[in-house]
Amino acid sequence: MRTQPDTVARPEAQAQPVIEMRDISITFGAVRALDGVSVRLFPGEVHALMGENGAGKSTLIKALTGVYTIDAGTVLVGGEQHEFHSPAASQAAGISTVYQEVNLVPNLTVAENMLLGREPRRFGSINVREMNRRARRTLLHLGIDIDPRTVLDEHPIAVQQLVAIARAVDVEAKVLILDEPTSSLDADEVEKLFTVMRRLRDEGVAIVFVSHFLDQIYEIADRMTILRNGRLVEERMVADTTQLELVRLMIGRELEVLDRLDREAPHTESGSGTPLLKAVGLGRRNSLEATDLELFEGEVVGIAGLLGSGRTELARLLFGADTADSGELAVRSHRRKLRSPRHAIDRNIAFSSEDRKAEGVVGDLTVADNMLLALQASRGWLRPIPQATRTRLVKDYIEALDIRPADPHALMRHLSGGNQQKVLLARWLITEPEILILDEPTRGIDIGAKAQIQAKVAELAAQGLSVVFISAELEEVLRLSDRLVVMRDRRKIHEQTNDDVSVRDVLEIIAGEAREGETRA
Amino acid sequence: MLRHQLLWPVLALLVLLAVNVIAKPAFLDVRMQDGHLYGNVIDIMRNSAPVMLVALGMTLVIATRGIDLSVGAIAAIAAAVACTRIIGAADEAALSTAVMAMTYAIVVCIVLGAWNGLLVSVLGIQPIIATLILMVAGRGISMAITDGQITTVNNPWFSDLASGFVLTLPLAFLVAVGMVVFTALLTRRTALGMLIEAVGINPEASRLAGVRARTIIWTVYAFSGLCAGLAGLVIAANTNSVNANSLGLWIELDAILAVVIGGTSLMGGRFSLAGTFVGALFIAALARTIPNIGIPSEVNYLFKAVVVIAVCLLQSPKARALLRVRRPGAPTLANGVTA
Amino acid sequence: MSAITVPPSSDRASTWDRVRTYRPPNRYLPIIATAALFVGLFGVGGMRYDGLTDPQVLLSLLIDNAFLIVLGVGMTFVILTGGIDLSVGSVVALSTMIAAKTLELGWSPYASMAAVLATGTLLGLLMGLLIHYFDIQPFIATLAGLFLARGITYLISVESISIKDPTFTELAFRTVYLGDYYVRWTAIIALATVAVAAYVLARTRFGRTVYAIGGNEASAMLMGLRVAATKVGVYVISGFCAALAGLLFSLYILSGNSLHAIGMELDAIAAVVIGGTLLTGGRGYVIGSLLGVLVLGIIKTLISFDGTLSSYWIRIITGVLLLAFVIVQRFATRRRA
Amino acid sequence: ESGSGGDDDGTITMGFAQVGAESGWRTANTKSIQETAEAEGIDLKFTDAQGKQENQIQAIRSYIQQKVDVIAFSPVVETGFDAVLQEAKAAGIPVILTDRAVDVEDTSLYETFLGSDFVLEGEKAGEWLVENAKEADVDGDGTVNVVQLEGTTGAAPAIDRAEGFADKIAADDTIEVTASQTGDFTRDGGKQVMESFLQSDDSIDVVFAHNDDMGLGAIEAIEAAGLEPGKDIQIITIDAVKDGMQALADGKINYIVECNPLLGPQLMDLAKKVLDGEEVPERVVTEESAFTQEQAKEVLPDRQY
Ligand SMILES: Nc1ncnc2c1ncn2[C@@H]1O[C@H](COP(=O)(O)OP(=O)(O)OP(=O)(O)O)[C@@H](O)[C@H]1O
Ligand SMILES: Nc1ncnc2c1ncn2[C@@H]1O[C@H](COP(=O)(O)OP(=O)(O)OP(=O)(O)O)[C@@H](O)[C@H]1O
Ligand SMILES: [Mg+2]
Ligand SMILES: [Mg+2]
């Protein structure tokens, strides 16, 4: 797969690092997010930053690009000491960054988002036509076919992530930083991104890449820096490190959870009795065609599909987050229109949204408040959760999901992305739902935690919880689900019990449908 | 964290009092007169009551990311309703007349507040415009009730609401403090406070978590109406009359100022009732400072501007950081943005 | 959207979809609705009251509200970034006072105008710096600005001062005839301000940055935009516009007075919001604000054409008209449910 | 058209642009005008400018567009009406000013001005105090310490009344204004300012309030301080509204200078004369007097407002 000559990719001694960070430390209040971390970036390499949730990867990136002020340590750019004091400064110096949370502005168009700050101009005024044309071209390069004139927030989160990437790769940068760009992309999208990354690497760009998917790291990265608890563990060549070794370096001990992963809980027999949840012809104009779905007790239904295939919309309709234009929904065979999430929650349905930042995190509240929000909401304001129960629940879930920092009073917005995701999961588990709808629950979660969460879902299902599981990562969907629903073009195209279906099978189902569509047309 | 923030408003208040003492050394003197306390401090307490009440409701509204411009008009309506009821009653001076009139006025105000809540939460109209409607129309309604005349009432019980004393302290102040304490218990001993904050910080996330955001927003505006109504009654009782045109004029600005001085952000979210309490005292003390240190009328505004800027700078962590020498290793965010 | 593996055939289908379901982009709906409602109000009024349909009424609306249009323009910039500027009313008063006082002192009219514009801009700059560099909330910083500007006005003079300068009076009375009808220069200046502002917002980097900050300030900062300069810039613009509006106001009433323009900031904010701009920032257009001013103006005109309402009914009816307007607008622009 | 006595149908249409409804005085003024118009069969177009000059100018402009027969208005401020008055003149519509004068170069822009003289009111108050200086020195220390409750800063009545008052008391050097602060023409404002004066100064002999309302507020503050208004501290006010007259009769106020709001009959009379082409004086001062406590008791039963 690698085509570039070795001289560029293995610069070790001869080349000078474009960026070198030495002994960087950053403290937030009592939290030491980075403690004497050093990183070197060489031109023409993909450098992976590795570490668990909260290890300090994002902080390191923000330290480099001038979002945070460095407390101690030096940054060398091209061998000279130079610290950036704002993202604008780092960008001007040729560092192009996609931060972990999609950081675009929702109210402007796709094209504007991509070219903000460097719009093509004619006689001093922005040339809109040219801007749209350029945006469209860059998007197509990445294989994204959307109208650049549409407003960004009309698009699902995955597309927004792609747009953010497109913005970053569109500039002529010396350094490209991608903080978990692939967390909600499907395999196809990831491959397209990698193609672009390889091209840029071959052109001599230094790329920083963060991902919790080890396979992706092994596919694309040349070198990696491993962090743990804000400290530098080691710098390694990817080729010289086995996956197991890497995991050990990241978490600092042998990983038993990973073993457990393969010995997953047995699939339950599904399809018996009356369904717990039954949707008939559920649909919504412009986002989902009429869809049937049944969910039985103790069953995990996985929904597979590509970007924009309508999985999120289906989940939202099942939860009443959006109202359906057509179709019916029955919970325990009571036909009810779900008019609001509140309705759904009262019927013991829980839904964890894919858009953590906009639809999950309540940033200025504490971790404890965030965890207890849904439970408290369903109890009503007059019946506060007793202090003892609060403390116990929060403590239990912080431990169970290994949330770090393990401080219930920390503000939610100060948590790392992956840890926020865990808190949100805890929010729903605490309500003890009968039906749990998870849309990308493992987005941005490290490998250990992912295994924990998967194990937790399997365990709960074994206890009778019914789960709808959506993830861009097909393996994960297949591993967990008893029954598989495949979606495409905003409708269900296939459904089957999961008896050793493989990723390949699913891709073929999707592709087959595509071919059918072609012949029909 | 909020407790720590209280430090600055309290400090500002103390500085203001100190300035007064320097100008008039007897400023803080309090003496006993007719069985109650008498002095500038007592006056400040009493005069702070209306702003404190309005600011109390405003704090909760602001916590949900809203704003209520109609409070002044609602106060005027409350006063108009109560006063016309009192003079229309068979026995103008009776206790029952006062109680009935006030109850009636408060109910009207709750309805008006709920109307604001309806526009904001159900129809989804921006708070500033939704409440602007009542701000404009409300004063007209209040004038219609009093027929544009200053209505003077003679009811000792009603008058006591502003001028009465209980346990040597002004009743109005005790009422306001009572409301603050009641609200603090209501929001902090139940889950209401947390839910209000959640709605203010991230409405969509709260909705998806099952919070009845609409009901909360509604209730909060109704509560603000109630508080504004109480404030209106206190103001009317203070002069035993209602002037529909001037009663509570611009009180919304004072109230918002009190809320912000108290450390609650206008962006919604975390709120501090204790801060609002101090903020309201500050506003009242400021009003007293102007005549006390003999600032000529034409310099009033300038003086206020300087004080407001000074207090805000005092509260701004960035401004304080500039004054202090930067310690190495201190937590600093280059741009104050947490992404 | 799902084009990655989707063959071209479905692309055609989605184009067809797009044509079939075409509606004007959501973001223009508020303006379209406001314009339609304005025309509606005008039409209904025209049927009820003689003389209202006279085109001169419309032109008078522009003449009488020229200063408010300019204020609305400045306010739009500020509100688009998610801020607010309460000081503009006071700055208008201050501007009239500076103009009147400097003229009284025998300054040349041009020096006097320059002094007015410089003062407003400077005040805007000061507030912008307070807001951005000291993290003081816009509401409070500009409230301080309100007190400050009004305070300086009182300091200059508590009594009102007439403007008798020939250049000013000449400018004030100069009219442009359009057939039988006329407008004053002040109205043309106001419309020109709208045009310039619309251009700046739509077609310059500064303008796009204004929208970006309103959309998400933290993101704008991470995207490497010039957040600081832009945020301070909008207050400078608002200060400048307030001073310019103050000049237009001095031409309108040819006097300086410390009691002028009390509460005018609320009119400006109301106009901007009625024009469809979101107070949370990021969405809205200056054209909307122009329409918002005209709507407020037509409400006043309708009431004075009626002429039978007592003082309090005028307020109540104004509130009711505002309410009706806002509700209709709200339903007209409701996002695809 | 002017002088023809109205439209074809003979009724006179008058456009009246009122300042606002900021006080009881003002509403009495409005009422008087509306009632007289109705009684005399004049078609009145009324607008309330809510204290804003720009609103008032817009209203006047709309009257011009509606082609009324005569325009009357109480200017919000004295200056800045030149342009719109010229338009009225160009349209041949006569203009009558009420209550407050305007400051225009060309006095032919309006027919006549009907209203009171604020400076004169202040002077009357000052004169009375000078005459009664001995009794007014309540604490008998040889100086008369006066505190002044000003009207809204910058408002013409506040400025003129203060000026007139200061002019007259200059004649007696035992009289001294020791403190002066705005009470915004409201009772609440008057009360709060007076409270503060009482806290910091116990040698106050006289309160001079720019209107009755502030005076009434001061009474409340004085009573709350355990003093007797009218005796321990003397009070002079301006306006003579009903509540003020009552307090005067009750001995809580010592002297009130009248400022008459009932301009309706005089205004309609002037309007008819103007439209009939009769000569009218450039300035018509309303009939106003001043009241002592005894006079108040006499006239109180007959007061209309
Ligand atoms: N603004 C802040 N205030 C306080 N603590 C913070 C702040 N930002 C980050 N932290 C803390 O710093 C640590 C490192 O966070 P960081 O976001 O760098 O982790 P990460 O390695 O990117 O994790 P993830 O994989 O979950 O994204 C975490 O413990 C986090 O809670
Ligand atoms: N509010 C909306 N307006 C217009 N189109 C929408 C809206 N919401 C969703 N869509 C469209 O509906 C389709 C289904 O989107 P959905 O988010 O459900 O897909 P998904 O399979 O969950 O994809 P993803 O992996 O991006 O989350 C997409 O094409 C999306 O663009
Ligand atoms: Mg991270
Ligand atoms: Mg999705």
Can you give a write-up of this model?
- The complex is a heterotetramer of chains A (521), B (339), C (337) and D (305).
- By secondary structure, chain A is an alpha/beta fold.
- Helix content of chain A is 36%, strand content 23%.
- Chain A has a six-stranded mixed sheet, sandwiched between helices.
- In chain A, helix 10 packs across helix 17, helix 14 (367-379) packs across helix 15 (387-400) and helix 14 packs parallel to helix 16.
- The longest helix of chain A has 18 residues, at 503-520.
- Chain A starts with 5 loop residues before the first helix and ends with a helix.
- By secondary structure, chain B is mainly alpha-helical.
- Chain B is 69% helix and 5% strand.
- Chain B has 14 helices and six strands.
- The relative contact order of chain B is 0.19.
- Chain C is built from 15 helices and four strands.
- In chain C, strands 1-4 form a two-stranded antiparallel sheet.
- The chains are: A alpha/beta (521), B mainly alpha (339), C mainly alpha (337), D alpha/beta (305).
- Chains in contact: A-B, A-C, B-C, B-D, C-D.
- One magnesium ion binds at residues 156, 311-312, 354, 439 of chain A.
Can you tag this structure with a few keywords?
heterotetramer, C: 337 residues, mainly alpha, ABC transporter involved in vitamin B12 uptake, BtuC, two-stranded antiparallel sheet, 15 helices, globular, D: 305 residues, alpha/beta, six-stranded parallel sheet, binds adenosine-5'-triphosphate, binds magnesium ion, transmembrane helix (chain B), ABC_transp_permease (chain B), transmembrane (chain B), membrane (chain B)
